[in-house]
Amino acid sequence: MSTPIDPSTTSTSAPTGLDRALLEWLGFDLDDVAEWWAGRESWPSPMRVLVDDLALRGVDTVDEMSEQDRHRLRVADRVSEVQEGYRRRFVTGMRRPGPGGRSVARHHDERRL
């Protein structure tokens, strides 16, 4: 049996497709992020890039954020939640296909009804 990949310890030399798209949507140049993050083990999450950018601009509280920054933060937070949910369910192997291709947890939930 193989050990599932732990995404928190996996080093990557480039952002994932979703991270790349989100970084670009948030207004960051990927070359600038690569230069800023050079020498570290893996790419930062888009949320980390956004929070560090806000800190560099001296924004310490939500009250100090522009409406655009608040919107960017909400979107990055939601994408992070979705990615973490995906990692928990599929990458780490917590949800394996059950009967008929459904996840085991879903199959057991349906049986309880």
TrEMBL record:
Residues 92-113 are annotated as: Disordered. This is Uncharacterized protein. It comes from Actinomycetospora cinnamomea.
